[in-house]
Specification:
Number of helices: 21
Radius of gyration: 21 Å
Helix content: over 70%
Strand content: under 5%
Structural class: mainly alpha
Distance between the termini: 20 Å
Largest sheet: none
């Protein structure tokens, strides 16, 4: 059966997105830990970015372990274990990492904190290898990137509330005036997080998720070309670099934002959380917008939802910050910036290559504005990078694994390996900031977006030569 004729399997897709939530919760919470650790352990900006390095390099180490075991056992371990078992194992590994936060907090040990984050990241790497291609496979290929975008929207609900919860755990109520940093208060939310990992692992084990998605089996059955190793596909090799720089600019923009707001604008550490929340909520806003096409609704309804979805997501951000008793006044103007996102999404017409090119250009523009301005205008500009990064992951991932057939799992693993860019690029920007200043350091992000624009241009012709096009979409009824 052609994948074009099947509908999204919502009963399977909905349980899957729970793991996307946790990835976002932890990743965004790191942006609160960075300034806290910097002050508590008296670190430079470059040293403080070791938080990002430990977490994101774990993805690469986990991917290498995955490849090594698959090579030694002469078979893909995910196909052997099954998708559900692999997800459950990944969640269990991450839960073990959260346990290290207890002794690390009690002993005020920065290395032990980094070790805990590293192990959490190891578990996430296995989850990512399974969950991303699975999200694409649970429905027609033509809406695969939109489905992955929708999962990313759930991920970014986690990123929106993560900084607020962790900030509250460390500093207490937003009205608190103390600037003292309590390392011991970090351990409680992470112990609760570990318990949640275990519960979700049990839930997924007994869910209706397939052990091997039919779409991957179908690609194997109809494959005409001789089998290749995944790295022999140019769309994947260039896509690996694209994932590296994409995750790099996404993470580094946020992880260096607290230092910019403290050193240039005079913000206190405990007052930065709403802006970190806004950055990651920006990704949620964009991904909810991009996910509209996955519903296969009438064209008129789709156009309406393109305007409704982003402001619904923005409303979620305002709501959670209102509950946290933060002043919402500085954020209302951001509603105007969202219109740029909506226009870009409409112009892309759902084509992942076109969307990648357009949004990379907008990302460059946002960073340039942030670098040449001061005050809150620069903060809004840097924060809007989240809007323009929002749909790039599913675009790159979908383009990179297209046409890989039975090499899809291997290709997915290679892409997950490159998530280390989140740590490396963040550290690099921190080093540039130490050598120059934090404001100028955002030039690193511009270089990343320039490569993404190149990949968008190049991959279109690569896929066209292989007979793969994303311009053909199912007809809305």
């Amino acid at each position: 059966m052609s994948s074009e004729n099947v509908q999204t399997k919502w009963s399977q897709f909905i349980p899957l997105v729970s793991v996307f939530f946790f990835w976002g919760f932890v990743a965004a919470s790191n942006d609160i830990l960075i300034p806290v650790f910097k002050k508590a352990f008296d670190l430079s900006q470059g040293q403080s970015q070791l938080v990002s390095v430990a977490f994101y390099v774990a993805y690469t180490v986990g991917s290498l372990i995955y490849m090594g075991i698959s090579y030694l056992t002469k078979g893909d371990i995910v196909n052997r274990m099954g998708y559900k078992n692999s997800l459950a194992l990944g969640l269990t590994i991450s839960a073990l990492g959260t346990l290290l936060f207890y002794p690390a907090a009690n002993n005020a040990s920065f290395p032990l904190m980094l070790s805990g984050l590293f192990i959490v990241g190891l578990g996430f790497s296995l989850q990512q290898v399974v969950a991303n291609p699975l999200a694409i496979a649970l429905g027609p290929l033509a809406t695969g990137s939109q489905r992955l975008t929708m999962a990313g929207g759930i991920n970014n609900f986690g990123t929106t509330i993560g900084p607020l919860i962790v900030s509250f755990a460390i500093f207490g109520a937003s009205t608190a005036t103390t600037t003292d940093v309590s390392i011991e208060s970090v351990k409680i939310p992470y112990l609760f997080l570990g318990a949640a990992f275990i519960l979700v692992a049990i839930f997924l084990k007994f869910s209706s998720l397939p052990d091997r998605p039919a779409a991957v089996l179908e690609q194997e059955d109809v494959a005409i070309k001789p089998a290749k190793r995944a790295w022999q596909y140019p769309q994947l090799v260039l896509g690996m670099i694209a994932i590296f720089v994409y995750v790099g600019v996404e993470v580094s923009t946020a992880s260096n934002l607290p230092d910019y707001m403290q050193s240039n604008l005079g913000f206190e550490t405990q007052d930065i959380a709403p802006y970190i929340s806004l950055y990651w909520a920006s990704l949620m806003i964009g991904r909810w917008t991009g996910a509209v096409e996955a519903f296969n609704v009438k064209a008129s309804a789709e156009k309406l939802l393109k305007f409704f979805a982003p402001y619904l997501a923005f409303g979620v951000f305002l709501l959670v910050n209102a509950i946290a008793r933060h002043d919402l006044t500085p954020f209302y103007v951001y509603g105007l910036i969202i219109l740029v996102l909506i226009a870009g999404d409409i112009l892309s017409k759902g084509n992942p290559a076109r969307m990648l090119l357009l949004f990379s250009g907008l990302g460059i523009l946002a960073l340039l504005i942030g670098m040449v301005t001061d005050g809150m205008i620069s903060v809004y500009a840097f924060t809007s990078v989240g809007l323009f990064c929002s749909t790039l992951w599913p675009c790159i991932f979908t383009l990179a694994i297209s046409g890989l057939g039975k090499e899809t799992n291997q290709g997915s693993n290679l892409l997950i390996m490159m998530i280390m860019g989140g740590g490396i690029i963040s550290w690099l920007q921190g080093v540039v900031a130490d050598a120059t200043n934090i404001h100028f350091s955002y030039i690193v992000g511009i270089v990343c977006f320039l490569y993404l624009a190149f990949y968008a241009w190049r991959v279109k012709s690569i896929l066209n030569n292989q007979g793969i096009s994303f311009d053909r979409k199912p007809v809305n009824h």
